[in-house]
Specification:
Elements (H helix, E strand, L loop, with lengths): L1 H29 L3 H8 L4 H10 L2 H9 L3 H10 L2 H22 L2 H10 L2 H22 L8
Amino acid sequence: MTSRSSAASSSVSRSELRQLVRLQLQALLEQENLSGAKALLVPVLPVDIAEVITELPEDMQALAFRLLSKDEAIEVFEYLDSNTQQALLGEFKRQEFLNVVDQMSPDDRARLFDELPAKVVRRLLEQRYLSIVHCFCLLLPDPYGNL
């Protein structure tokens, strides 16, 4: 009976630990403190990192996964559920594609956009537009004088 209650308390505390790591990781990623987020994950077991990544908002999952070393990422990926694995793979492919498009000359990019369905081109342009607007917001002074 003692071993059962001990096992139950250790699983609860492990669950609480995962929750605490997830909350801290999410806060660090929201603050764009990548070095802090990476340091937070160092002592955490791969199986627990996989659980934490799965519980993060979808837009943070790939970012958290990219903080891992190559060997750790391989191990963590094996513990992820298939839905999270598929979402990460889709995000990585999308990012690679966006990077290739960004490196194209304007003429080549125009030719590519002529070949792609309008819905895909619209999504690509929206993503690029949002990142450009974000960069300008960081560079330009606030018209209202706020810091």
